[in-house]
Amino acid sequence: MHLRAVFTRLLWRTLAVLCLLLGLVGIFLPVMPTVPFVLVAAWAAGHGWPALESWLVGHPRYGVHVRQWREGGFVPRSAKWAASIGMLGSAILVQFLPVPSAARVAVPLCMVLVAAWLWARPEPPPPLAGAVDGRSRPP
Length: 139
Known about the structure:
single chain, mainly alpha, 2 domains, 69% helix, globular
């Protein structure tokens, strides 16, 4: 294998692991999202670590989000609400922190833009009869 291919694969794997670690932090810190980092980790793993990608796609908790995103950029309504409430709480919190005035305006503005984009994403279709975890069961 060429050195460049090895280096490229190592970079993709590093990005995948870094995003998984950030997602892991998000499990314990409510202000840090988990699923977006898992989505990026699955994307990066698809370029340099197929076994990790398969594991993420088949993961019992987060795999459904990866599959829904890949199938149509779907974001469940519950995730939209959770993200919006989290951003609202963070926007309120930043108003009471010792940060520059520009941050008190810029941070909530960015969050409003992210929330608008998020709510514009389609929601997943209802599961098919007999579907398990968002996967259709063969007839």
